[in-house]
Write a structure and sequence with these properties.
This protein has 9 helices and no strands. By secondary structure, the protein is mostly helical. Helix 1 packs across helix 2 and helix 4 packs across helix 5. It is elongated.
């Protein structure tokens, strides 16, 4: 979740993925260890998916490389073919999950969508992703301490993309002028906690209803 430029990216995520590996997928491997074959990319994908389960269930400190390889069904040596350490795969996982959020949100945005509608559609895409990947929040939260640089990039990159979207919407007349940096951080914060409440903690509300209420808040405010 090919994607469009930043206007269709989500109101939560990270900075853009790093260099791409063969086949167009973002390279998550440690430097010098990018897989060159389809089989290698498949193995690395299994390791990342297993790492999401391991870190999501056990947390960064209790998780282990052996636990990741057991879940992936790979040999320990295969892990070190692509990643230097537990820290390295954790950092790669933060980037990988953020890219997944971006793809999901972009897929939810309809062609030509702009302004409040675009933000609502991106939020709906993110909420659906969060419901499918409940380990997302624990991994991102632990990155604050396990990988502060990735954690900060996660939010700074997102805010920059939201601001760029808002700038475009203001220029096109779809939004009123204002301080789009402040707006971007505010919208990102709203989406983060909506994802926590209605993506991780409970699914009793329809995604479309939550996104519509958030859109009404952006459009009308709460001042009465």
């Amino acid at each position: 979740m090919a994607t469009a430029p930043h206007p269709q990216e989500p109101a939560i995520g990270t900075a853009s993925p790093g260099p791409e590996s063969e086949g167009g997928a973002p390279s998550a491997a440690s430097p010098g260890k990018v897989p060159r074959t389809a089989r290698g990319r498949e193995t690395m994908r299994r390791l990342l998916d297993a790492a999401a389960q391991e870190f999501g269930e056990r947390g960064f400190h209790e998780a282990s490389v052996s636990g990741i390889t057991r879940r992936a069904g790979t040999a320990l040596g295969s892990f070190y073919t692509y990643f230097d350490s537990k820290d390295a795969i954790f950092s790669a996982l933060v980037r990988d999950m953020s890219a997944g959020v971006a793809r999901a949100a972009a897929a939810g945005v309809s062609p030509g969508s702009t302004g409040i509608r675009r933000e609502s559609e991106a939020l709906a895409g993110f909420l659906a992703f969060a419901r499918q990947h409940k380990e997302l929040y624990r991994i991102i939260d632990e990155a604050e301490f396990a990988d502060p640089a990735s954690y900060r990039a996660h939010y700074e990159g997102t805010a920059a993309r939201i601001k760029a979207r808002f700038d475009e919407s203001v220029a096109s007349g779809a939004m009123t002028p204002g301080d789009n940096e402040v707006r971007a951080w505010a919208v990102m914060g709203m989406n983060v906690f909506l994802g926590l409440r209605f993506g991780i903690w409970g699914e009793e509300r329809a995604v479309a209803d939550v996104a519509a209420e958030a859109a009404a808040l952006l459009r009308d405010g709460v001042g009465g």
